[in-house]
Amino acid sequence: MHYKCTDVSLKKRFLILCIPLAAAIICTACNNAYAAAFSNDYADSDIVYSQPSETYSSESEDSAAIGASTDISEPEIIVSEPDYTITDEMYKYFDEFALVGDSVCSGFASAGYFPQKNNLARPSIAAWNIHQFLITSDDLSTDVLVHLYNKQPKYVLFSMGLNDVNLTTKNQFVHNYIQLLYQCRQASPNSEFIIMAVTPVRSKFCKNEKIDEYNQALADAFEEIGYKHYHFVNPTDLLKGKDNKLKEEYAFEDGTHLEMSGMRVCLWYMYQQGIEYSFTKDEMKTPQCPDISGYEYLY
Predict the structure, then answer these.
(1) How far apart are CA 255 and CA 137, in angstroms?
(2) Is the pLDDT of residue 109 over 50?
(3) pLDDT for 18
(4) 239-263: b or e for each residue (b if 16 or more CB lie within 10 Å)?
(5) Minimum mean pLDDT among 62-76, 104-118, 230-244: which range?
(6) How far is CA 35 from CA 23, 39, 43, 205, 241, in A?
(7) Distance CA 61, CA 56 (A)
(8) Using the 8-state DSSP alphabet, how is residue 244 labeled?
(9) Is pTM, for the whole model, over 0.85?
(10) Tell me: the pLDDT tens digits for 143-176?
(11) Burial of 180 (0-12, 13-18, 19+ CB in 10 A)
């Protein structure tokens, strides 16, 4: 064997040595060509091999989104305040009102929202003592019932109670108020009666929880009576803050009475109730002149 190999020429020996090298080069070229072909065939595929973490299905994305939402608390919804501006249309509506009540009620006229000539309210009045007060209107000082008899307004706004809650029980308050409304109905039977809830306070004058109880008792009484020309309006939720007190911006400096901004809230709310004059001809009654001979006026 050795001798045969020694007979091979140098040229043949060189060719024999080059065969393995040429084979390796050919194999490498084939592999590269195959890889390039494979890459071109799958260039438009949805599968991205270099970024497997981004190949989630839509179902997985939805699940992840749901999971993420449960970990984040919902943002607080901020509700903007309504525009409580008293418009010309409202003023025209208020011109047909008479006011009966205490200093809160009288304040509506003093602030210019109602004609002063129709103001039959004054400080210190309560449902239990209203007939102890002489009311001056149209150069006449007399009982509120006589004024209503003379004026026969389309609407009467009643607002009182702050002088009742600390001096009478809840049941007494309701009884006195209903009795007063009945007397006013005799004197002015063709008027729509709008009864505003006792307004909340910011002072230590009284607890607002107690005021709420008195208002609820009054509302329940009107529902039981069922007289369609009684309209109970309660703007308390608009007047109160989160501390269950009259909002500071609506409170007068004493914390008990309403600032003009608070009055606007009450009157805006009342107007939004859409209370219209609804007496029919069949419902109209003849006013009865009130008998005030038994009253002793102290003020």
Answers:
(1) 29
(2) yes
(3) 52
(4) bbeeeebbbeebbbeeebbbbbebb
(5) 62-76
(6) 19, 6, 12, 90, 74
(7) 7
(8) S
(9) no
(10) 999 999 999 999 999 999 999 999 999 999 999 9
(11) buried
- The answer to whether the CB of 126 falls within 8 A of the CB of 167 is yes
Residue 152 and residue 191 in contact, taking contact as beta carbons nearer than 8 Å:
yes
Which residues contact residue 254 at a Cβ distance below 8 angstroms, ignoring those fewer than 6 apart? Answer: 203
User: Contact at 8 Å (CB) between 263 and 107?
Assistant: yes
Structure tokens at 272: 């939004």
CA atoms of 119 and 134, how far apart (whole Å): 13
| Residue 230, helix vs strand vs coil | strand
Q: In whole angstroms, give the CA distance from residue 135 to residue 123.
A: 11
The DSSP annotation for 40-107 comes to: HHTTT-S--TT-GGG---HHHHHHHHHHHHHHSPPPPPPPPPP-----HHHHHHHTTEEEEESHHHHH
* Token code pair at residue 13: 């020996």
For residue 259, what is the DSSP state?
P
The distance of Cα 99 from the centroid of its chain, to the nearest Å, equals 27
Tallying the residues shown for the chain, one arrives at 299
Average pLDDT over residues 80-91: 93
Q: What is the DSSP string of 141-206?
A: EE-HHHHHHHH--SEEEEE--TTTTTTS-HHHHHHHHHHHHHHHHHHSTT-EEEEEPPPP-SSSSS
> Which tokens is 52 given?
């497997």
Q: What is the CA radius of gyration of the chain?
A: 44
What rounded mean pLDDT belongs to the chain? 84
Q: What is the pLDDT of residues 275-294, one digit of tens each?
A: 999 999 999 999 999 999 99
> Among positive and negative, which fits the CA dihedral 100, 123, 219, 186?
negative
